[in-house]
């Protein structure tokens, strides 16, 4: 990790997992990351459910592919972290006492920095997963506080705003986007919170068990607090995007000399 205020190197993985082939999918990501990260990297973000695939057709299938917090995915993130020097963030199904959650782990060199269970489940996820019960996490790092959210969380403005109000300078955002407006929407989220966002999406298609086909749109991206697209992947290809960012730029919430997004908030007047 690096000192606060310095530029950091951020990597975003965009893969196309084969449903249920966890070891194969992990190995493909391993090869991609190690081929692309010849220099030290500070943060690597992988998609939501990057190793299992997304379109589960039954509780039994989900239970078979779910893990404990410190299972194979945690071990893989530990391996990547030691080899790259990065904090690693990515999604997986986790077996909890009340059911299975759509979750993300944040790992640095064998330490579990955070485990987040998605609080806003999308569409048919609600038939299989249970909702998270804890707030979106903010993790102290050497490059400043980092928030985490998963995919559909982005469409709830309160989610990213709560992370920004909590001091997060950068937000890791594992996703499996199928809706076309996500990439543009995240530009607004970055601007309205003056924060860096790092979205890792997947590509490919899934059509399983008679369910409606899903086409994942890719376009993983890194957005600055000014809404500048610092890097964006394609809509079709497996690839890794690497960009240098300066998290300290997110400390200022000003858009003009006398206009500060956060100082001018009037929460006492915001009501239903």
Write structural notes for this entry.
It is a single chain. With 272 residues, the chain is an alpha/beta fold. The chain contains five helices and 16 strands. The chain has helices at residues 22-36, 59-65, 72-84, 157-165, 182-193; strands at 8-14, 43-45, 87-96, 99-108, 111-117, 138-139, 146-148, 170-174, 196-200, 203-206, 214-217, 221-223, 229-232, 239-245, 254-256, 259-260. The strands form four sheets. A six-stranded mixed β-sheet has the order 5-4-3-2-1-14. Strands 6-7-8-9-12-13 form a six-stranded mixed β-sheet, covered by helices on one side. The longest helix is centred in the first third of the chain and has 15 residues, at 22-36. The termini are far apart. The model has no long low-confidence stretch (mean pLDDT 96).
């Amino acid at each position: 990790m690096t000192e606060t205020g310095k530029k950091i190197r951020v990597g975003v993985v965009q893969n196309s997992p084969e449903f249920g082939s966890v070891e194969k999918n992990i190995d493909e990501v391993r090869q991609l990351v190690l081929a692309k990260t010849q220099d030290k990297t500070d943060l690597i973000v992988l998609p939501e459910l990057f190793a299992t695939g997304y379109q589960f057709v039954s509780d039994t299938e989900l239970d078979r592919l779910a893990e404990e917090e410190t299972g194979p995915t945690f071990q893989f993130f530990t391996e990547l972290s030691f080899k790259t020097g990065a904090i690693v963030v990515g999604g997986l199904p986790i077996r909890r006492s009340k059911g299975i959650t759509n979750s993300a782990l944040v790992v640095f060199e064998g330490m579990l920095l955070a485990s987040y269970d998605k609080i806003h489940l999308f569409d048919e996820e609600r038939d299989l997963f249970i909702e998270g019960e804890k707030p979106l996490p903010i993790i102290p790092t050497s490059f400043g506080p980092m928030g985490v959210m998963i995919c559909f969380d982005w469409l709830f403005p309160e989610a990213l705003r709560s992370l920004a109000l909590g001091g997060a300078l950068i937000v890791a955002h594992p996703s499996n986007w199928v809706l076309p407006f996500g990439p543009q929407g995240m530009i607004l989220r970055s601007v309205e919170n003056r924060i860096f966002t790092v979205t890792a999406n997947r590509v490919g298609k899934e059509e399983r068990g008679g369910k409606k086909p899903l086409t994942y749109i890719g376009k993983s991206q890194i957005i600055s607090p000014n809404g500048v697209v610092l890097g964006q992947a394609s809509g079709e290809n497996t690839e890794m995007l690497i960009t240098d960012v300066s998290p300290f730029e997110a400390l200022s919430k000003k858009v003009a000399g006398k206009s500060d997004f956060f100082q001018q908030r009037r929460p006492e007047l915001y009501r239903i």
